[in-house]
Amino acid sequence: MQIKAIDPINRPFFAGEVSGVDWRKVPTPQEAEAIHRGMDEFGVLVFRDQDIDDEQQVAFSRALGPLETATGDIARPEERRLSMDVNDISNVDKDNKVVARDDRRRLFGLGNQLWHSDSSFKPVPAKYSILSARIIPDKDGNTEFADMRAAYDALDDKTKAEVHDLICRHSQIYSRGILGFTDFTDDERVKWAPVRQRLVRRHPRSGRLSLYLSSHAGEIEGWPVPEARAFLRDLNEHATQRQFVYAHVWRPHDIVMWDNRATMHRARRYDHTKVRDLHRTTLTNEVSSLEQAP
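Below the sequence we write its predicted structure tokens.
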């Protein structure tokens, strides 16, 4: 296995392209450890030309760690087309037809166009996300990734001290509300009640500190809400400056893996009448961010 930086001039340690890995085969423990080391260094890894199915994706992903259950969307059980091991990141229904522009599932999914970290709205958030491109539009629909380690490093000392011990509250109710989506059932409002997450995390393997930001974060404990949201907006603007961002232009059968503990990401707009079908497996962090003291 080899990894080369995608942008060795501007971002030599963020986003790497991997060769020598076949996702149709379950990795050995040694191969899995090599991938973990690559993730520790680059935060985002790209695997090209991986024509796989869900069973192969799940088997490979499980070799890297325990998986989350796909409970972060609003599809009803009878609407699902994938197993609960796989997140359906697509604009098609179970009959593989493009959903209507005003479909509730599509409107909820537009929240993915906000900068976020996967599952930060869960008490135990996500570790790795693994996204497999099955069908993509001819153009647009890129996914952008921001390096939260570099963003933290670039803060001035005063701000580093200020953010070090802060606790935020994350909820999908808040992030979707930013876009004006408020069509939640009572059960969904209970399911996505705010959870507590650290604003600064120390990576358990690399030891690096990073900002833990997300569109789901709407409060800082002990702060007035308007002040907290203004401050979080400033931090998000800082963390998503172009020098911290890698924009992935999708090709068919790409797999992109990223570490949610060290990155944020967002989807970009595309022609909603074109099929865009990506399948995501997600490794759980196993412990709350509160247990990973900076």
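The first strand starts at residue 2 and ends at 7.
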